[in-house]
Amino acid sequence: MWTYNSANSLEKSLPSIEKAIDRENVCHKIAVDGGSSDQSRTILDRFGWTVKEAQRKGIPYQANEALTMVDTPFFAAFEHDIILNPKWFDRTSRIVESDDRTGAAQGLRLYVGSKTMRAFEAWMYRAKRIPAWSFSIDNTLFRTEAVKRAGGFPIEDPASADTILRKNLFGLGYRWITDSALLSGHYRKDFLEQFKHQVKLFELARYYWSSSPQDRSVPRRFISLLGGNPTHVLGMALQSSMLRVPIAWYILRLQRGLYLAFPHENKAARRVPMDLWYLTYFLKTVLSSRLTLPTAGEGIDNLASTGKNCAWCGQSAGFSYSVPRDWGNILPKLHPGVGRRFFACSDSHAERIAEKIFKDAFEYVTPSHS
Ligand SMILES: [Zn+2]
């Protein structure tokens, strides 16, 4: 754990960790503190954590210092504001242990504390707007060897240690698995805290991560500045029945939009690293849905099947495939001409079509398998 003036959330976070992980599964509880002036160190001490003063302040630096003290095959990384699900260790340890290509396993975390922040994410989770493969390093069980082979927590961008570590693990052939039904809390005292946190994060970040970094078109930026799709905001307001929810949403989006609208010299847009594991899983599901189309002259149905062309090459198609229904937000992202069912001349072309569908929708992919 890395901390800095975290007293407020530690009182909630530490007991939840203690509850989720049995004593016999814990060797060390290590916190690297970035020079707190509040009660953080005292509280950590009270819960039996070894506290070390950071040589250099910042998430990846503090995390790496803690990593040098890890002497077990697996370790857990927590942020000071995580309120851990009681089942967290049970479920993440099973995922990590079941396959030695798995480098990291985690759940999702949704805001608690602030009612406003909670309403945003409760809506987003229910509407499947939170990708099931969402990742972070704050409620995550790691394979120590994997992280060490990847060079530890990357210091390249202090606000993107998670994204870059994940990319580095993919590069080594490891998976990063998210159990999207395993929900922990992410404590925010109030909306103002989130507002300040977001500014700090923008200032700190060197990279913006996007599924389509080249798409900085004016309409897209304008829509983003205005808070994105207005029906989402309406949904949030109705679900929470709190008027301040849409107002707070627009404030946060405007803050983000304004920040991104101005050029920042030392910042670059980069593509979110693709998780090949989820892609492979998706392709397999699509290919297994293959149906052979009746050829001309076979049965009375042949009129319906004539003129079906491969959506990749345009040649006459012999098969139809379906995009699985339970991959949430992939469906609304389908390109014109490719529907829930599409036609292809061969498995290899079907695979290319499915890959394009997946990559276009990547930002909102929500496989509902568990
Ligand atoms: Zn084809």
Task: Report on the architecture of this protein.
This protein is an alpha/beta fold and 370 residues long. The protein has two domains: 2-113 and 130-187, Spore Coat Polysaccharide Biosynthesis Protein SpsA, Chain A, CATH 3.90.550.10; 276-364, no CATH class. It has 14 helices and 13 strands. It has helices at residues 7-20, 40-46, 59-67, 88-97, 115-126, 144-149, 161-171, 191-204, 218-225, 230-240, 244-261, 276-287, 302-305, 347-360, and strands at 2-3, 30-33, 50-53, 74-78, 82-83, 102-113, 139-143, 175-188, 207-210, 268-271, 291-292, 319-322, 341-344. The strands form four sheets. A five-stranded mixed β-sheet has the order 4-7-6-8-5. Strands 1-2-3 form a three-stranded parallel β-sheet. Zinc ion (ZN) binds next to loops.
Give a short summary of the structure.
With 370 residues, this protein is of the alpha/beta class.
What tags apply to this protein structure?
binds zinc ion; 13 strands; 5-stranded mixed beta sheet; disordered C terminus; alpha/beta; 2 domains; 18% strand; 370 residues; Spore Coat Polysaccharide Biosynthesis Protein SpsA, Chain A; 3-stranded parallel beta sheet
